[in-house]
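To: structure desk
From: M.T.
Subject: fold request, one chain
Message: Could you run this one when you get a chance? Sequence is below, nothing fancy, just the single chain.
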Amino acid sequence: MPPVVKILIKRNIVDKENKHSKYYFEVDRNGYISDTTGDKRIPSYYIGKYHKYEARKVIEDFDLSYNIGTAVTYLLRAEKKHDTPIECIKKAIAHLEFELEQYEREDN
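Reply: Done. Structure tokens follow.
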């Protein structure tokens, strides 16, 4: 396995309302970014520890819906991004509930 090189990236991407977009990376918020994926925009908490799978690629490979895919990414990063996984798990549950609501609407 190649060594992980840690790179500090700070970008200033601003949307039309002069707010930072979700692609704004700062070291204090997102930490170091591994360059093992070839894409410097991917925060390290979205990359697997041993096989270096990226959450977005796993979701794409399994052809998951938006809500299921979002829930999976929250669960995959839950232990890595914050001090406790509680916030990410709550967000994942919310997206699973959104998915259930969608199925229930389609059934009626």
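Reply (cont.): The beta strands are 6-7, 33-34. Let me know if you need anything else for the meeting.
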